[in-house]
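Onboarding guide, step 5: your first structure request.
Type a short instruction followed by the sequence, for example:

Predict the 3D structure of this protein.
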Amino acid sequence: MAIKRYFATKDNTITNAYKSNLVTRGVSGNMGQSDILEVFSIYGQVSSSSGLSSELARILIQFDTDAIDTDRTAGTIPASGSVSFFLKMYDAEHTQTTPKDFTLVVSAVSQSWSEGLGLDMENYTDLDSSNWLTSSGATQWVNAAATVLSGGSYITGSDAEPLEYTFTQSFDTGFENLEIDVSHLVEDWIAETVPVNNNYGFGIQLTSTLEPAIAEESYYTKMFFARDSQYVLKRPTLEARWDSSKKDDRDSFYLSSSLVPAGDNLMKLYLYNIVRGNLTNIPAAGTEGMLVSIYSASQASLPIGDKLFSPVGGGVVATGDVNITASWVETGIYSCSFAYASSSITKIFDVWHSGSGGGANSIQYHTGSVISIKTYDSEDYNFDQNYVSKVTNLRDTYSTRETARFRLFVRKKDWSPTIYTVSSKAIETSIIQDSYYQVARVSDGFKVIPFGTGSLNYTRLSYDASGSYFDLGMNMFDTDTVYEMSFTFVINGTYVEQAQKFRFRVE
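The system replies with structure tokens like these:
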């Protein structure tokens, strides 16, 4: 699974807007239990001797980064640098006006605050903390110099590395969702890096140039669903994304060729150490990796002869080496990559071991299954590649308590087997190097998990000798709901969404 979502632990809207009497400001009003979060600016609603009024609303929201750190220690999410974190908030439609052509700023809050028990977003009658003036109880908002503030306290330009903790997103129509990469801030929270050595959450507001005292224009009102919303899938989340795909070329192993780029000549193999049904690190290897050597195969399908030489590249540090360096991937999983150039030997074995000499001090961990070498042929290229797909192990229902592994069988649409082929062997699945999944809610088409393409590739499928697959944590889905998964393949450099759809229900 390459997605994990963390829901907000507290949120609130704070404001200095006028109450309905247009005399008193709602600076002490709290909305911590509301199902809506709101950002706005209002200019000129009230006139006084000091000029036209300015009214603002801002959002405070916090997530538990200790939970992220715990998951990282447990191996649920990758180490820093291998995972990205996105703040996601969903637009809430309403009957009031919605501004357009504005920008929101997301900053790190610099002071602890309480969520509060308030609900009133109209007249701001629920007096509690946090609010426009106080962060908790009678504690006022202050900056690092203890200067009293209004509207919250945030990491600003006077603090160290201010740009590291300031993020923006533009809204053209005003109806867009908020989705911002806040990875380095989250990582600094976890690492307790100064000046964000404590996680006090995010503050969300209009840019200073759009606030009414400067802009002399109103932006009323942008609403998001809050953590107390009944719409579970649209509650604010801090979403961890990473590429967990594993490309195991054991059943799609090609001889090195000048017809393809050098990088595509590198084949990747995996070792899965499963003990009593659980992935387990090999005790002698731990997380330090090991070596892999390649042998030719005998007629009896056993490794024979001496280790085969490998060209430089991947885990081979020098041309003519007989040992390939393998690395630890995650608990119980190791991998190596190398190019194979021995055209005279068409069947090989991979032997995983310690030590380079193969003597008494070397430990042999595993011998893989026989690998049949394929060759690239420029004349076999098909410019019109169409496929038929099927999730072979799809069930009608799943529990929110499980993580399901889905297996995708793929074959060419124009495949025409002979009678001999049908009767003598199982239909082989086609390996799609880059394929991605998407999950949408059937009732309204809402994309719970969109195609995770681009630089992160967080919904890319893995593949092994049995075909393509991916893991999906069902705790991300609302219950008593039907969902539909679909797939897109990269074909000739273009994403081609497949026609087949597959439905399941979460209970």
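Each response can be followed by summary notes, for example: The mean pLDDT is 92.
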